[in-house]
Amino acid sequence: MSDYTKYSKNASGDVQETITSITTELETLIDDHEIDVNSVMSETVIEGADVTYLEKDQRWALAAQEAREIIAIIRSVMEENDGIADSALTRARTAAENI
Predict the structure, then answer these.
(1) pLDDT per position in the chain (99 positions), as tens?
(2) Read out DSSP for the chain?
(3) Global pTM?
(4) Using CA atoms in the order 63, 68, 70, 71, what is the torsion angle rounded to 10 degrees?
(5) Which residue, among 25, 15, 20, 7, has the nearest Cα to 92 in the 3D structure?
(6) Exposed (0-12), middle (13-18) or buried (19+): which is 41, by Cβ within 10 Å?
(7) Residues with Cβ < 8 Å from 75, sequence gap 6 or more?
């Protein structure tokens, strides 16, 4: 095993594209669910069941909000990692030029 870390902007970009695609799809599903539930609940009264469903949907909404928070953290970490990598690459380039 080597004693150095290798960083590839291309590999990082590919991973970020994949993660962005997945998180965007998840956010779309969450948004679509909210729209569907609001539409159905505004048009439908199911005696007794509507309250039960709303309770379950409140749990869904909480989980969806937590998912959105995780997505925001993932995006923030990716941006931070890019900054760290760019800084390290710049320092390495400068060090190599000063040899």
Answers:
(1) 567 767 777 888 898 999 999 999 999 999 999 999 888 878 877 777 777 888 888 999 999 999 999 999 999 998 898 899 889 889 989 999 998
(2) --SS----HHHHHHHHHHHHHHHHHHHHHHHHHHHHHHHHHHH---TTHHHHHHHHHHHHHHHHHHHHHHHHHHHHHHHHHHHHHHHHHHHHHHHHHT-
(3) 0.73
(4) 140
(5) 7
(6) middle
(7) 23
